[in-house]
């Protein structure tokens, strides 16, 4: 900064104003001289040091359970896009579904002096989360964390499952197997399974059951395919990860997609149109979820003291050949 000031023939304070928020206080001639000196010297201000000095880092933290999950990546992109628009940077920490990693990442995010936190994990370290929440605003994405009084942004799971069952019913399917990732306490998975069971009970002529991904999935699918007599069969997968696992096992079993069985998937992934005649899906507005999560956080940073809010987005049904009309 001293070198820039010497070359431009101005004070260090003028250079500080130029690279800070007070550039309008400088004359056009001084601003041009400072810009020329910065370009000539290749000066790059230390944004972290400036932020700490001013008490602001313009860093937003995001804690995700599984960065390999396409849903997490898509939401993260929405958050990052909104951050960039408002002059913030995003620090992403992946817990890889590991409680110890979650604890370490929370400590690291605190040391980075983040201004707010977006959480997409189970939140098993409730005490640490609550302590951090007492210092800065926090928004939950997709998953509720009990006893954490924070805004929540995600999908309207009951509506999404209702759309799926309505579509399967109208297209003639009567025997439904829902495939979900293991029930580890993730609120969105619990809500989807509960809505599935409730929806089946309300519809006459439907039969259904639930199974989980994992080593026993192939056996569950084989038994479902071999079972005779109730009516046309369909699978309902609870998210993109479950859809990929299910599709792989169906191929391994030699199933003719989608002649032997129908399939509707919650989440919309790029490869769905490429499988057989295409997989019918319920698309989550992941970009809007990410943008809304950041904007909600930004409002809290700007002093919003209103009671916590729930932002639940509807899913969009995209019909493809995997749920063709059955007689």
Overview of this structure, please?
The chain is α/β, with parallel strands linked by helices and 327 residues long. The chain has helices at 2-8, 12-19, 28-41, 47-54, 70-85, 99-111, 126-133, 157-170, 187-201, 217-226, 240-252, 286-301; strands at residues 59-64, 89-94, 116-120, 138-141, 151-155, 175-180, 207-212, 233-237, 262-266, 280-283, 310-313, 316-318. The strands form 2 sheets. A 6-stranded parallel β-sheet has the order 2-1-3-4-5-11, with helices on both faces. Strands 7-6-8-9-10-12 form a 6-stranded mixed β-sheet, with helices on both faces. Helix 5 (70-85) crosses helix 12 (286-301) and helix 8 (157-170) packs parallel to helix 9. It is elongated.
What's the end-to-end separation, in Å? 77 Å
**Mean pLDDT over the residues:** 92
What is the percentage of strand-forming residues?
15-25%
Question: Order of strands across the widest beta sheet?
Answer: 2-1-3-4-5-11
SS-based class: alpha/beta
Number of strands: 12
Query: Largest beta sheet, briefly?
Result: 6 strands, parallel
* Low-pLDDT windows of residues: none
Oligomer: single chain
- What Rg is obtained from the alpha carbons, in whole angstroms? 25 Å
Defining key terms:
327 residues; alpha/beta; 6-stranded parallel sheet; 6-stranded mixed sheet; 12 helices; 12 strands
Which helices and strands occur, and which strands form pairs?
Elements: H1 2-8, H2 12-19, H3 28-41, H4 47-54, E1 59-64, H5 70-85, E2 89-94, H6 99-111, E3 116-120, H7 126-133, E4 138-141, E5 151-155, H8 157-170, E6 175-180, H9 187-201, E7 207-212, H10 217-226, E8 233-237, H11 240-252, E9 262-266, E10 280-283, H12 286-301, E11 310-313, E12 316-318
Parallel strand pairs: 1-2, 1-3, 3-4, 4-5, 5-11, 6-7, 6-8, 8-9, 9-10
Antiparallel strand pairs: 10-12
Helix pairs in contact: 1-3, 5-12, 8-9
